[in-house]
Structure formats: structure tokens, C-alpha cells
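Researcher: Please translate sequence to C-alpha cells.
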Amino acid sequence: MNNAILIPTDFSAQSRMALRFAVDNLASASAPTRLVLLNAYANMPRISAPMISLHDILKRRSEEGLQREHDFVKTLLNGNADRIDIRQVSRPDTLKKAIRYILARESVQMIVLGSDQSNRNFDPCDLVESFRTPILLVPSLGAKN
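Model: Translation complete:
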């Protein structure tokens, strides 16, 4: 695959807009494209006990959310999915560390993510300054799914 696009998602409306933008505008290139859907979730310590751990719950929710996003991309492609490879990555880490993990293992041409100005934990400037890979921030104005 020549064009790899990393799309971090927290399953919010802003992330969905970024995903839609990437599929509508970037994945329509003539060359084959790989979309890497990434969800970073809290890294909770595992406690050895017979019951399910919080880590297991967060991991399952992350994987289920990524599958929903994968299915959403397939509907956007409307039968033209043969040129698009969709990979799902669920990481127990911060967003920054999860992106670094992907970039160390794959050749990514661009990162596309939704920007939510109301989220005080999200600092797009920090991400832009941390990576050499171009980052496209899709604004959250008028978010609709």
C-alpha cells in the first residue's frame, strides 16, 4: 500500500468527522490506500483475579468501537473497498504514545484527527510538535453523523 493514513479515534462525533473526511477526500486517490484506525485507551493495571478486569473491559470496548468505525468506513466506500485496506489497532496507552507506536512500525504519510476545542485534555499543538508526519486536524464545527 502506497498511501497509509493514520486515523486516531475516541469514537466521538469529531473523530467520526475526521474519519469521514479521510475516506471522502484522501482515500479516493488512484493509488491503493491503507487506513489505520487507532484507539488509545487507559492503561489499567491487571490484577490476577478470577473476575474480568477493568483493562479487559476497556480493551473490549476499544475493539468493538474500532469494528463499528471499520463498518462505517465500508458503508462510506459503497462497494469500492477493494483499493482500501483497513487496519484496526487498539492500544492501552496515551494517544501520543499510541501514535508513536504505530509510526515506529508503519510508514504513515498523514495523520487525520478530529479537533475538539472543548476537550481540555487534547492539545493538538503538542501532537504537531511531537511528530514529523503531517497532521491534518478536522474542525468540529457542525459535527454531524
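Researcher: Any highlights?
Model: Residues 23 and 77 are 8 Å apart (CA to CA).
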